[in-house]
Amino acid sequence: MAETATAKRTVKFIITRQDNPEAAPYTEEFEVPYRPNMNVISALMEIQRNPVKADGTKTTPVVWESNCLEEVCGACSMVINGKPRQACSALIDKLEQPVRIAPMKTFPVVRDLVINRERMFQALKRVKAWIPIDGTYDLGPGPRMAETKRQWAYELSKCMTCGVCLEACPNVNDRSSFIGPAAISQVRLFNAHPTGEMNAHERLEALMTDGGIEGCGNSQNCVRSCPKGIPLTTSIAAINKDTTKHMFKKWFTM
Amino acid sequence: MSGNSFYTRKLHSLLGVIPLGLFLIEHALTNYSAFEGGPEKFQKSVHGLHDLPLIFFLELFFIWLPILFHGVYGLYLAFTSNLNTGRFQYGRNWAFALQRITGVLTFIFIIWHLWQIRVQVALGELTTEEFGSKMYDIMHNPAYFVLYLIGVLAATFHFSNGLWAFLVSWGITIGPRAQRISSRICMGIFVIMSVLFILSMFAFRGDEFATVSAVAASTLQLG
Fold first, then answer.
1. Mean per-residue pLDDT over chain B, rounded
2. B47 labeled part of a ligand binding site
């Protein structure tokens, strides 16, 4: 019968684990009962409920991070079968088995699949990825944004600082201080905003210092990897244009 | 590297095209004159270049110093990059990796090539009249021929792909369509320049180049 065949089906996982930030990584194999439409998160939940390895010995539950389970929060980024992506949208039916899961090593590993994406939030602070509107009185409504501009700017606003683009980038590593694609695209977003534009030069200048936009080597893995389909390389090239113009403007007006 | 790497990187990108890329094009054309018109035409091209006024300063500021800076800083940039073509086998990622690999190869090749030709001229061991016969000797050594082939292909690829990256880094080609078209044009430049260099490599193997120094010497005597 089809039902018994389905009930017996299992999914194999090879998971790279690490007990603490300083510990050496190791792999463990798991065999999880198959359920229709399962994703990597539901498989990890199954391992959490029953932390037994494929060889039958007990182990500690695998630790991971996840929140929204609908690919908008960016928390469950991990390397699945060699590619960095969101675990919640990684459907088992579409993955080659055994499924190999590892943390995104570009970031400091906290434990197992949990990484520390602090550098991404620091990068957003560094480029001032916000719009300053605070004042002592009501400033009234800001200037309007053209609908055509709003449409492409909205695509950039989908960034969830998941870190996949940094993991894919060959120039984001411990030998380079490159800020990574995400923050550069956010500069384009906030510089496109009619009120944010008033502080455009501050964001450009932040990218014109060590570890700024010059770190991009145009491998373009970021745009291929972004789970939200953000045109990261277009953003980088557009900001290349803006920083180049800003450089000449500064040279000839100072 | 000290200072602000934004400007260092911009200078690195600019020097790769102007003057180094322009010099590579000039070099390809000078060599190609050996294929088009044999020893006489090649000799004329070489003399035309070496007769330029202020040739020492032209070489210093438009070739030696830019190569030194572009090469040394390029080695540092290659060192700060990871190659992850095993994980991401996209064309552009391969071009990224090859840009760094061909950069290192080109730098080594240029040092060797300068030693063989330019340094020997400076030491008085070689004259510009003997370039043809010197190339005849080099191209008839099978190992040298292969090394020159690798060096020339590395240099032309590094320039052509670097030109593509230059257009992105300076914000000239922004959208995916513009970058796709410029990529095709740059790969066209790679093919054309490689063909020019390879044809001249075969031209230097011709017997007429073996005696070019003798011909030059006899015309000198006649003159």
1. 92
2. no
**Residues from chain B contacting residue A222 (CB–CB below 8 Å):** none
pLDDT at residue B1, as a whole number: 43
Question: What ranges do the domains of chain A cover?
Answer: 6-115, 118-132+142-253
| CATH class of the domain defined by A118-132+142-253 | mainly alpha
On chain A, the residues whose CB falls within 8 A of the CB of B101 are none
pLDDT of residue A2: 53
Answer yes or no: is B12 a known binding residue: no
Which residue among B87, B92, B169 sits closest to A220, beta carbon to beta carbon?
B92
A211 touches B: beta carbon within 8 Å:
yes
* Confidence band of B8 (pLDDT split at 50, 70, 90): very high
Q: Report pLDDT for A141.
A: 87
Chunked mean pLDDT (size 10), chain A, 254 residues: 64 97 97 96 97 96 97 97 97 97 98 98 97 87 94 98 98 96 98 96 97 96 98 98 97 90
How many angstroms separate the most distant Cα atoms in chain B?
Answer: 66
* A224 shares contact with chain B (CB less than 8 Å): yes
Distance from the Cα of A187 to chain B's closest Cα (Å) equals 15
**CATH 3.30.420.40 for the A6-115 domain, yes or no:** no
H or E element that contains A211: none
ipTM: 0.91
For chain B, the structural domain boundaries read 5-222
Does the beta-carbon distance from A175 to B87 stay under 8 Å? no
Q: For residue B223, what pLDDT is reported? A: 42
Q: Is A170 on the interface with B (CB under 8 A)?
A: yes
- Quote the pLDDT of residue B93: 97
Q: Nearest residue of A to residue B94 by CA position?
A: A219
Check: CB of residue A76 under 8 Å from CB of residue A87: yes
3-state secondary structure A197-242: HHHHHHHHHHHCCCCCHHHCCCCCHHHHHCCCCCCHHHHHHHHHHH
Q: Dihedral through CA B104, CA B105, CA B106, CA B111, nearest 10?
A: 90
As a residue count, chain A comes to 254
* Residue-wise pLDDT tens digits, A14-56: 999 999 999 999 999 999 999 999 999 999 999 999 999 999 9
Compute the distance between CA of residue A104 and CA of residue A166 in angstroms, rounded to an integer.
9
Q: Return mean pLDDT, chain A.
A: 95
Among A238, A243, A245, the residue with its CB nearest the CB of B174 is A238
Closest chain B CA to residue A211: B5
CATH number of B5-222: 1.20.1300.10
* Longest Cα separation, chain A: 81
Place of tokens 């099978």: B142
